[in-house]
Amino acid sequence: MNEKRRCAFAVCGSFCTLETALEQAQELTARGWELLPVMSNTAARCDTRFGRAGSWRQRLEALTGHPVLDSLQAVEPLGPKNMAEALVIAPCTGSTLARLAAGLSDTPVTLAAKSLLRVGRPVVIAVSTNDGLGASGENIARLYQRKHYYFVPYGQDDPQAKPQSLKARFALLPAALDAALEGRQLQPVLCPAAGHGMSFQQGKSVVY
């Protein structure tokens, strides 16, 4: 059976991690996934020192072969019309974490999550926030208590300069998605600080 599987892939405004996120989007397509790209309001509109919003949009559309979904109307059918098996949010910022934890669906990314959750599909979060061990920590904890939310394993990315910052280990995103589709959280969730540890997934060592 060669039919592709389809997943919605949403990016938020953690601009320093967009390049890494797109690398994993490309990895998912190489593994046979068809991706429906979603951009948050911030990611879709803000030019930064990491790149122009229009350039990120073009790259996402070229990589996935689909136009970016960047409105409430565009993402609302994802779940009811069975357009995707799952939603990946990579990167997921502190602002989006807060909205998800509060049950708000007022942005393309959070409404995409609501749309998939309403039909019991998994939402996989690759967190990237400078206050993951601060204000965003409680929102991460709240999502662990909700059905159908799963996390890409994460850890501190710069404990000395940014001691509250958390960042997903993006290389584990495909494995986290596979696990979520089986109804389980990829373990271990908490990783050593970047460059300071090793974990083992499916018999292979992964250096962080």
Structure characteristics:
globular, Rossmann fold, seven-stranded mixed β-sheet, catalytic activity, 208 residues, two-stranded antiparallel sheet, Flavin_trans-like, Flavoprotein, disordered C terminus, Dipicolinate synthase subunit B, alpha/beta
- C-alpha Rg, in Å? 16 Å
The biggest beta sheet reads: 7 strands, mixed
Name given to the CATH architecture? 3-Layer(aba) Sandwich
CATH topology: Rossmann fold
Structural class, by secondary structure, is alpha/beta
Unreliable stretches covering 5 or more consecutive residues: 198-208
CATH superfamily: Flavin prenyltransferase-like
Strand content: 15-25%
Average of the residue pLDDT scores: 92
The coarse overall form would be globular
Tally the structural domains: 1
Order of helices and strands: EHEHHHEHHEHEEEHEE
Compute the separation of the termini in Å: 35 Å
For the record, the CATH class is: Alpha Beta
Q: How many strands? A: 9
- What's the quaternary structure here? single chain
Number of helices: 8
Relative helix content: 25-40%
